[in-house]
Write a sequence for this structure.
């Protein structure tokens, strides 16, 4: 009888909650899942915000590296004949206008390729073939390209890449891609050298030092 009384007291005692339906465990699991999802969402939002801020900072840095084309880069009043300060002037201008020079060099190369339709078509075809070979060709479990049978001979992934490299090299020779690149680089270097030699630096000396150029006093 005493044991029965103790059992009854335990059942009716509010300090010892019993949940035979399991509702409390279900609610706890639900709350834990909701908290986990919230934490993941928070991390995702924070990660996206950080990535966006880094992208904006990178874009801002690139824009800062490109000087004004009208009032600074190509302004007629900013050019003068170089004297003894030729080398320091070129060094400062190369740093100060590096964004502008990069855009011009890329534009010259693109225009050189566009001026040769045969070269342009060849580059597009090569790009498509390389993309198919590297990203769309079936691969084995170890990540290597699946063998390709050509003329009754099975070619491994390495042999396929070597063969495609040889085709690319021959195409470059036949289409004049190498000469086009050399011509574009030569024109860009000539233009950059002339511009950096004749553009004055007294108007942007402080900015040039901020971008890593050698101050005029140290250069002297």
């Amino acid at each position: 009888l005493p044991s029965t009384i103790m059992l009854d007291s335990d059942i009716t005692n509010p300090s010892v909650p019993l949940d035979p339906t399991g509702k409390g465990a279900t609610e706890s699991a639900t709350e834990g899942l909701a908290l986990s999802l919230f934490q993941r969402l928070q991390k995702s939002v924070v990660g996206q915000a950080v990535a966006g801020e880094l992208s904006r900072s990178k874009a801002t840095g690139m824009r800062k590296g490109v000087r004004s084309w009208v009032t600074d880069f190509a302004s007629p009043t900013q050019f003068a004949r170089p004297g003894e300060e030729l080398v320091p002037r070129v060094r400062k201008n190369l740093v100060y206008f590096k964004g502008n020079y990069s855009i011009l060099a890329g534009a010259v190369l693109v225009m050189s390729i566009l001026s040769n339709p045969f070269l342009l078509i060849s580059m597009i075809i090569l790009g498509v073939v390389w993309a198919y070979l590297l990203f769309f060709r079936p691969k084995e479990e170890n990540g290597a390209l699946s063998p390709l049978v050509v003329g009754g001979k099975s070619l491994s992934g390495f042999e396929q890449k070597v063969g495609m490299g040889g085709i690319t090299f021959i195409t470059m020779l036949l289409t004049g891609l190498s000469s086009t690149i050399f011509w574009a680089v030569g024109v860009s270097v000539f233009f950059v050298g002339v511009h950096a030699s004749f553009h004055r630096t007294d108007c942007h000396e402080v900015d040039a030092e901020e971008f890593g150029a050698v101050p005029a006093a140290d250069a002297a």
User: Anything to note?
Assistant: The chain is about 70% helix and 5% strand.
